[in-house]
């Protein structure tokens, strides 16, 4: 039986569930969720913890994720020289000096920006000091700049950047914070992980170079749940469209990713209380503070066809609206800022 990153038991991945597994699931979570598409049934009468029910949209600031992670490519910020060699004229790489600057800036930046806990934890462990592994694409990474192995290598190779020896580990961190030209590759990774690689006929429209900062591990976890929910309604067809739009609002650029289960409609009214049971609630938890999230679909209520779940309330956007866009399926709309 598989368990996802945030501790929810995914009973759909393994149809053979033993009594021991059910007992362990109940002991850990207090309930055993059974995913039936848009409906979740619990085999216990113990309810979810109250804190998982709502999210403070005033603390949902995906632009902060972009601002924080872009520091890893800013020439004037020490974060950059964790993942890039030091190329400034007249300067040499000294590990102790860099880490002192990074530690000071990390304390400042993490107070300044609201970022998801998962992203904070990965960055904190990557910088160190910590004996805890961080993960990317299900692989544990034991690398930390404060580790004895890095310090030993730097002492034996003065003024040399650890990239020369720990390139795969450092590059893994870089890949975990930015989507560049690999969006299709990430989606295929998700489908392969879920055993769905041949389940869908996917049409990729203008995905080009997405180029946005995000917590890639959380992003692919959310995608996995979305595609799994499509598969649970495969009777509606196996056609999926993935499209990427680029828009600008003032100084902000937006990358809008639309994932559509073509031909699928919503049998229930498009309301949070109706749809956000089971795994879709987990999607909300994963995408909170990471990206804006909306769902569009034809549904029994002719006055609503778009539900905004994660958004900036100061923009005047409302939870429910009627859009004039053409709707030809059940669509998840994810908006990233750059």
Report on this structure.
With 338 residues, this protein is an alpha+beta fold. The chain has 3 domains: 2-52, no CATH class; 57-176, no CATH class; 179-337, Heat Shock Protein 90 (2-Layer Sandwich), CATH 3.30.565. Helices cover 33% and strands 21% of the residues. It contains 11 helices and 15 strands. The strands form 5 sheets. A 7-stranded mixed β-sheet has the order 8-10-11-15-12-13-14. Strands 1-2 form a two-stranded antiparallel sheet. Strand 10 and strand 11 (252-262) form a beta hairpin. Helix 8 (183-194) crosses helix 9 (216-232). The protein is elongated.
CATH architecture of the largest domain: 2-Layer Sandwich
- Rg calculated over all Cα atoms: 22 Å
Provide a count of the helices: 11
Q: How much strand? A: 15-25%
Give the overall silhouette. Answer: elongated
Number of strands: 15
Report the top-level CATH class of the largest domain: Alpha Beta
Overall structural class, as computed from helix and strand content, comes to alpha+beta
Please tag this protein with its features:
disordered N terminus; 15 strands; 11 helices; 338 residues; Heat Shock Protein 90; 3 domains; 7-stranded mixed sheet; two-stranded antiparallel sheet; alpha+beta
Quickly describe the structure.
By secondary structure, the chain is an alpha+beta fold. It has helices at 19-29, 62-69, 80-83, 95-112, 117-127, 148-156, 167-175, 183-194, 216-232, 272-275, 279-287, and strands spanning 2-3, 9-10, 33-36, 39-42, 134-136, 139-141, 178-179, 201-205, 212-213, 239-249, 252-262, 292-296, 306-310, 320-321, 329-337.
């Amino acid at each position: 039986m598989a368990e996802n990153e945030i501790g929810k038991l995914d009973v759909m991945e393994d149809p053979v569930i033993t009594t021991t597994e059910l007992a362990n699931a109940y002991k850990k979570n207090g309930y055993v969720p059974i995913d039936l598409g848009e409906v979740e049934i619990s085999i216990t009468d113990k309810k979810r913890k109250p804190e998982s029910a709502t999210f403070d949209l005033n603390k949902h600031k995906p632009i902060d994720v972009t601002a924080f992670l872009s520091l890893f490519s800013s020439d004037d910020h020490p974060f950059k020289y964790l993942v890039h060699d030091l190329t400034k004229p007249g300067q040499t790489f000294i590990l102790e000096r860099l880490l002192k600057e990074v530690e000071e800036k990390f304390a400042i930046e993490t107070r300044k920006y609201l970022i998801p806990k998962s992203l904070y934890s990965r960055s904190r462990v990557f910088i160190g000091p910590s004996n805890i592994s961080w993960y990317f694409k299900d692989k544990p990474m034991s690398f930390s700049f404060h580790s004895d192995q890095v310090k030993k290598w730097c002492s034996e190779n003065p003024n040399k950047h650890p990239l020369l020896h720990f390139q795969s580990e450092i590059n893994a961190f870089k890949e975990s914070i930015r989507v560049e030209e690999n969006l299709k590759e990430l989606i295929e990774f998700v489908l392969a992980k879920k055993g769905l690689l041949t389940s869908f006929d996917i049409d990729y429209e203008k995905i080009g170079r997405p180029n946005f900062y995000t917590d890639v591990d959380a992003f692919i976890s959310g995608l996995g749940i979305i595609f799994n929910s499509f598969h649970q309604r495969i009777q509606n067809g196996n056609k999926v469209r993935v499209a990427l739009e680029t828009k600008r609002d003032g100084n902000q650029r937006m990358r809008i990713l639309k994932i559509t289960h073509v031909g699928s409609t919503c049998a229930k009214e498009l309301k949070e209380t109706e749809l956000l049971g089971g795994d879709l609630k987990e999607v909300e938890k994963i995408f909170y503070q990471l990206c804006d999230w909306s769902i569009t679909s034809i549904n029994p209520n002719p006055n609503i066809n778009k539900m905004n779940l994660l958004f900036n309330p100061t923009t005047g956007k409302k939870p429910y609206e009627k859009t004039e866009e053409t709707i030809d399926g059940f669509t998840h709309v994810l908006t990233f800022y750059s």
